[in-house]
């Protein structure tokens, strides 16, 4: 499975977050910018929620790609198409 998250600041106080699975958008949400604080540590496979210690992904993560801008939906889809055969998807 290929999971992608994009995050784009849409106003001084809000960001829009989109989640994609296998190149297809499955969720969009708007959150307060303070909840998406860019100064917080960036961690792959960890979500700092209200549970003690947060949530840790228990599995394997084969690839991580970071960009200095928000990818368009077509770029997310094209990235998935480019790697799907590598993982038998």
Q: What's the quick description here?
A:
The chain contains one helix and five strands; from the N terminus they run E-E-E-E-E-H.
Q: What is the overall shape?
A: globular
Number of helices: 1
Sheet with the most strands? Answer: 3 strands, antiparallel
Q: SSE string, helix = H, strand = E?
A: EEEEEH
The structure class reads mainly beta
Spatial gap, N to C terminus: 7 Å
What fraction, in percent, of the residue positions are helical? 10-25%
Spatial strand order of the main sheet: 1-2-3
Rg result = 14 Å
User: In what range is the share of β-strand residues?
Assistant: 25-35%
Low-confidence stretches: none
Domain count: the total is 1
The assembly state of the depicted protein chains is single chain
Mean pLDDT: 83
List the helices and strands and how they pair.
Elements: E1 3-9, E2 14-21, E3 24-32, E4 46-47, E5 55-56, H1 73-83
Antiparallel strand pairs: 1-2, 2-3, 4-5
List its salient traits.
two-stranded antiparallel sheet, about 90 residues, mainly beta, 1 helix, about 30% strand, globular
Task: Note down, in words, how this protein is organized.
It is a single chain. The longest helix has 11 residues. Strand 4 and strand 5 form a beta hairpin. The chain has 89 residues and is mainly β. The mean pLDDT is 83. Helix content is 12%, strand content 31%. The protein has one domain. The chain is globular, with a radius of gyration of 14 Å. The protein contains one helix and five strands; from the N terminus they run E-E-E-E-E-H. It has a three-stranded antiparallel β-sheet. The chain has a two-stranded antiparallel ribbon with strand order 4-5.
């Amino acid at each position: 499975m290929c999971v992608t998250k994009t995050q784009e600041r849409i106003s001084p106080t809000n960001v829009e977050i989109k989640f994609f699975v296998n190149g297809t958008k499955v969720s969009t949400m708007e959150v307060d910018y303070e909840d998406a604080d860019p100064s917080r540590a960036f961690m792959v496979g960890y979500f700092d929620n209200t549970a003690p210690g947060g949530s840790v992904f228990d599995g394997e993560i084969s690839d991580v790609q970071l960009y200095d801008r928000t990818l368009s939906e077509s770029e997310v889809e094209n990235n998935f198409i480019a790697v799907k055969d590598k993982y038998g998807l």
